[in-house]
Amino acid sequence: MAEPTEVLDGPGWRARAEAHRRRVAAWTGPHRERRRRGEPHPVWDFLFTYYSHRPAQLERWDPGPGVLLTGDGADGFLDRPGYRRTGDGVLLDPAALPQRLRGTAAFVHRLLTATRSREPRLACFGLHEWAMVYRTERPRHGSVPLRLGAAGTDAVVESQRISCSHFDAHRFFTEAAAPRNTLTPTRETQAELEQPGCLHATMDLYKWAYKLAPAVPSELVADCFALAADVRELDMRASPYDLAAHGFTPVRIETAEGRAGYARAQAGFAERAAPLRDRLIDLAAALPEPVGR
Fold first, then answer.
1. So which domain of life are we looking at (predicted)?
2. Residues 6+ apart with CB under 8 A from 29
């Protein structure tokens, strides 16, 4: 077991855990309240439905590797995977983490390293959301009107070059829209195609962070979630949906001005994502490889 690089006494780790819980409660609290009222939200629900991390899991705090927890209550962490008692406290032992998590770490390291190696491409203009409603009578958010109507939405798709590189966005394209994409992303080619300008690849840093938990500090998971929330807002503001009733002004990517604004925001998110991606790569690399590799 590696030696700790930081020691937190009871008041210290409890304060960090509470600060984390309060931070993410800004999102989990309203989500729970909307669920209680039975009110779906076309923008924010995605963060809790498409992504499988439940609000209670997001609120739970883990220190990450190298932090020795001491004092009353530290033994409670022994009920979680990967924690062991050492000396006067409890420490996360990467070698004690489940085999499946170590396999996930190997995949995440490979994918994020490949993504990092590429220059951001900023010419997709959010057309993936438009391709998801192209020539269909059943749009994904059926209760939200289309800004330009069905015919106007179809016309935008037909007037633009679609170049979506993200498999989990492309797989929701309508049957009519899929052949219009210049790429054919698959799960097998994910590491070959993902690039740091892609909004969905940036949002997915949150997914990779929580899938590596508890080997990722919860503060980093929250950083990735906060970025995903900001990206999601742009993603939907640039979509074909009319979200004025929910307080969102559109990014009109059907215009040259809107496309330029989208690309500037996309570049900003790629810049914000880079250090988070670097930290996840380092944490994934530090985990022992799964047995049998």
1. Bacteria
2. none
HSE value, Cβ hemisphere, 13 Å, CA-based, for 213: 22
How far is Cα 92 from Cα 82, in angstroms, rounded to an integer?
Answer: 5
Residue 28 region by backbone torsions, left for phi larger than 0, else alpha for psi between -120 and 50, else beta: alpha
Q: Strand 6-8 to strand 83-86: parallel, antiparallel, or no bridges (unpaired)?
A: unpaired
CA-closest candidate to residue 81, choices 211, 214, 209: 214
CA–CA separation, 250 and 129 (whole Å): 13
DSSP reduced 3-state for 14? helix
Q: What is the pLDDT of residues 271-289, one digit of tens each?
A: 999 999 999 999 999 998 7
Would the pTM count as exceeding 0.90?
Answer: yes
Distance CA 105, CA 108 (A): 5
- Span 78-112, pLDDT tens digits: 999 999 999 889 999 998 999 899 899 999 999 99
Phi, psi of 83 (to 5 degrees): -90, 140
Query: What value does the mean pLDDT take over residues 61-70?
Result: 96
